[in-house]
Design a protein that fits this description.
The chain is built from 13 helices and ten strands. By secondary structure, it is an alpha/beta fold.
């Protein structure tokens, strides 16, 4: 992709522009700003939970529109759902036939905005509901950490090893293909999703040309229903641009910081200038709270991104995520699991039947 398509446009001075777009957001509104709802606890390993009095713990911020229920079809390994009207709708939407395998790209060129965390938790949540068929791919060309934060270390193979043997793996079909690809995947501790780890050697990024990235995505589509991709930070890299061109759903991750949100907004401008207006309009903005005390910026940021994307979701702080260590879905607080259940429902809402 040539640089005159908009990928290289300079960001300029962020502070003044960000104040301008926040002001613009206050005067306009294409989508609804999230509202507070009282959730019930999301399932962990198929078991519903909550307080002794039957009410759920915590509150989550979610979009006003929810995905409706849909028919259940396809060879999916079901897990028991909690007896909740809200959760039944979301779980039905997550379990339905998606029509075709879907690529969900998590993006923001700024580091430290919970891209990896979001990729892992989306895969863990969707996988906990669907039972199988979900993979998280660390497509970060600069030593991404997804492979360290998710999946068991049953081997040290990464995308580099898969690409080396890609032609041979592609030649298989059916069960043999699934078994052969599994040689390169790691598994979540609860077996809810698979992990394709990134390569630690940054020199390998040169081998991830557009053709190779498309081949890898097509291979993952042959074995999985949902492919969650951590896209890294370099908008100029061929693998980043190719994932954007291939994605069915874009999720913009940010935290309530001006620099992080500005970079996300700047990325949306770049994608629109590259002709990806539909991808931007249908995107989901995901605001992650990195501290127990909500930032006063959250409301303004939610209002702004609601004017640019299909939905805005706010997920709460969880102490289990603060250390940056391995992510275990089952140890998250009930309110966190609930928020991610509903966030995943929003991400996959446009798909299926």
């Amino acid at each position: 992709m040539e640089t005159d398509t908009g990928w290289s446009r300079a960001a300029g001075e962020s502070t003044g522009r960000w104040r301008t777009i926040l002001g613009r957001a206050r005067m306009t509104g294409r989508a609804s700003v999230p509202t507070q709802t009282q959730p019930v606890e999301a399932p962990v390993d198929g078991r519903a939970g909550g307080r002794a009095d039957g009410r759920a713990e915590g509150r989550a911020t979610i979009p006003t529109q929810r995905p409706g229920p849909g028919p259940i079809s396809g060879p999916i390994e079901w897990r028991t759902a909690p007896a909740s009207g809200v959760n039944e709708q979301v779980i039905a939407a997550l379990r339905r036939d998606l029509g075709t395998p879907r690529v969900v790209a998590f993006a923001n060129p700024k580091g430290g905005v919970h891209k990896t965390t979001a990729t892992v938790l989306a895969a863990a949540t969707i996988g906990s509901v669907r039972g199988r068929g979900v993979v998280a791919w660390d497509d970060n060309e600069m030593r991404g950490t997804l492979g360290l934060r998710a999946g068991s270390a049953r081997h040290a193979r990464t995308i580099r090893h898969l690409v080396t043997e890609l032609a041979e793996v592609e030649s298989h079909t059916g069960y043999v293909l699934a078994e052969r690809l599994d040689d390169f995947l790691r598994h979540a501790s609860d077996a809810a999703y698979d992990v394709l780890a990134g390569e630690e050697d940054p020199r390998f990024a040169r081998k991830l040309d557009p053709h190779t990235v498309r081949r890898v995505l097509e291979l993952l589509r042959r074995t999985h229903d949902v492919i969650c991709v951590d896209t890294g930070n370099n908008v100029e890299s061929a693998n980043w641009q190719t994932v954007m061109q291939t994605a069915d759903q874009l999720v913009i991750t940010t935290v309530p910081r001006e620099d992080a949100a500005f970079t996300a907004d700047w990325m949306l401008d770049l994608l629109e200038e590259a002709g990806m207006n539909e991808l931007v309009a249908n995107a989901v903005s995901l605001l992650s709270l990195p501290t127990p005390r909500p930032s006063p910026m959250v409301t303004d940021l939610a209002r702004h991104f609601a004017t640019r994307t299909r939905a805005v979701v706010v997920v709460p702080y969880d102490p289990a995520l603060e250390a940056g260590a391995s992510i275990e879905y089952g140890v998250l607080q009930p309110a966190t699991r609930q928020a991610w259940l509903e966030a995943a429902g929003v991400m996959l809402a446009p798909f299926g039947r």
